[in-house]
Design brief:
Helices cover 22% and strands 22% of the residues. The protein is of the alpha+beta class and 129 residues long.
Amino acid sequence: MATLYFEIDHDDEDQYLWPGLRRRGYSKDHRSDLPQVVLGLCVNELGMPLSYRIYPGHTYEGKTLVDGVEFSRKQIGTDSITVVADAGMLSSSNISLIKELGMSFIISARIRSMDSAVTQKILYPSAHL
């Protein structure tokens, strides 16, 4: 997921069949003064794009994970997907849904927010053989 902002002064107007996508929202680039879109991207093991999904700029990206994964699975015609997500996507409901769908996943987390047993395994893996 990424946010892309536009150098315009106004959000998009909703149209009859096409909702306006450029909306103000949380901006990782600290540009909450500009409309943006949220982009979800599915890539292969070489980093080549396979599928993408665009969401309105005011969409919380944590709510896009399962929708984006399901969309990508249908687009590329496979169930074999590994979800790679950052701490913004890390929620117990997202992890539960990924597990229910039988997918592999890699999710980053802040070490300081983990309990000491997990922290020790991460920092000193050979000590836990």
